[in-house]
Amino acid sequence: MQKIQVITYNLNNNKMAYEDLLDYINTLTFDIVLISIQEYFYTINLPKNYPYVYYNRMYGIHALILSKMQLDVKFYVYCFGECYLGNKGCIISNINSSLIFISLHLKDGENNLALRNKQINYITHLILKIGGPVILAGDFNYRFTKQIFKYCKDFDELDAIKRQYGYLENEICFKFTYKYNENVLNNTRMPSYCDRILYKNIKLSNVTNYNIINQFINSDHKLVYMSFNEDINNLNIFNVKLTACKSSIVSCFLYDNLLCISFTFITLTLILYIFLWKK
Q1: Which long-range contacts (CB under 8 A, 24 or more apart) does 74-77 make?
Q2: What are 236-278's pLDDT values in tens digits?
Q3: 180, 220 in Cβ contact below 8 A?
Q4: Do the bridges between strand 89-95 and strand 99-105 make them parallel or antiparallel, or are there none, so unpaired?
Q5: What is the Cα–Cα distance from 93 to 77, expressed in whole angstroms?
Q6: Measured between alpha carbons, how far is 242 from 251 in angstroms, rounded to an integer?
Q7: Which of 97, 102, 76 is nearest to 243 (CA)?
Q8: What is the DSSP annotation of 229-249?
Q9: How far apart are CA 8 and CA 243, in angstroms?
Q10: Which residues form the Inositol polyphosphate-related phosphatase domain (predicted)?
């Protein structure tokens, strides 16, 4: 039986927030740690306290898997941005053909519920035939239909999706996860629980903790974590073929090489201009 922790943290592109995350990771002793990071565009320094590290990224979305034992990890990237470009999408990690971990960041904006539903529907249909455990962690960006002062599922936009697709989530007994100025809620935005961890095919009794790290103040989001126990070596093995979206592959290449492409384009334009001017 492995002790596993899942972490999601929207870093708001703040290097100090990533340092907070690293400090927290360095205290962990779990057998496996599954980490979803959103809105971080810098190159990350990988943690060094675990012998096996598996990592992939798409723009500001990162999937980081730390383990005390060697794993077989395959990554699949899907982009949801306009024209398949943008800072929204997901990374699906197939771990030992026994566990699916999805790091995601869905469409923002209080008026974009239909688009968020479309994106979560797309992700769900990718994994519908999987019989093993599935974990979704990230910035879902779901809001509440009215002003609330603590979590209430009756006004939670995400609750309908959970019921529709059979996703489970432990009881939320912690403070809002968004939006903060240091450690104070921003009065200009309706507070929400954007940052969540959902799962399927994991016994509720196996989940031992679901909470936030309140003392981290360098992002406008809170770090959310969930701990559970599972023997991933004895789970129902599934054999579902996932294929990375070709548009996502192209868009990731364009984004990762945007500076180089822009510089090349400007240089060629100047050369062409000088050539035509001399003529």
Answers
A1: 74/242, 76/242, 76/243, 76/244, 77/244, 77/245, 77/248, 77/249, 77/252
A2: 555 555 655 544 545 554 545 555 556 677 877 787 777 677 6
A3: yes
A4: antiparallel
A5: 9
A6: 18
A7: 76
A8: EE-GGGSPP--------HHHH
A9: 24
A10: 1-236
| CA separation, residue 257 to residues 88, 144, 152, 219, 252 (Å) | 18, 38, 43, 27, 8
Q: In whole angstroms, how large is the CA radius of gyration of the chain?
A: 20
First to last CA, the chain: 75
Q: Residues 213-218: what's their mean pLDDT?
A: 95
| 257 CB-contact burial (10 Å; exposed 0-12 / middle 13-18 / buried 19+) | exposed
CA distances to 45, 119, 183, 247 from 169, in Å: 31, 19, 25, 32
Full-model pTM: 0.86
Token digits of residue 76: 């699949």
The predicted-structure confidence for 177-213, as pLDDT tens digits, reads as follows 999 988 888 877 788 999 999 999 988 789 999 999 9
DSSP labels, 10-72: E-TT-HHHHHHHHHHHTT---SEEEEEEES--SPPPPPSSSSEEEEEEETTEEEEEEESS---
Instruction: Give CA–CA dist 271/53, Å, rounded.
Output: 45
